[in-house]
């Protein structure tokens, strides 16, 4: 359980490397995905987003993270609208 608390802490700290490592380790040990999500990841992400709850966020800013690379229809989504290969 202490290891899983590190998952939430790493999300709060913005430490993606640790979050990925802890998640992979937990899944390998048989921890259910929903336990990771509902018990650790979502609460941590809610806490990270708390300061922004009262601010209006432009819809286009939210959608920018889900747009696909313009040069390849099957390319993975990117946050910057273009991928490394397109810049």
How would the blueprint of this fold be written?
Elements: H1 2-13, H2 16-28, H3 33-49, H4 59-64
Helix pairs in contact: 1-2, 1-3
Walk me through the structure.
The protein has 4 helices and no strands. The radius of gyration is 16 Å and the shape is elongated. 55% of the residues lie in helices and 0% in strands. Helix 1 (2-13) packs antiparallel against helix 2 (16-28) and helix 1 (2-13) packs parallel to helix 3 (33-49). It has helices at 2-13, 16-28, 33-49, 59-64. The protein has 87 residues and is mainly α. The protein has one domain.
Compact description:
With 87 residues, this protein is mainly alpha-helical. It is 55% helix and 0% strand.
The number of strands is 0
Q: Structural class from helices and strands?
A: mainly alpha
Task: Return the domain count.
Answer: 1
Question: What can be said about the biggest beta sheet?
Answer: none
| N-to-C CA distance | 43 Å
The H/E string reads: HHHH
The helix fraction, in percent, is: 55-70%
- Taking all Cα atoms into account, the compactness measure Rg is 16 Å
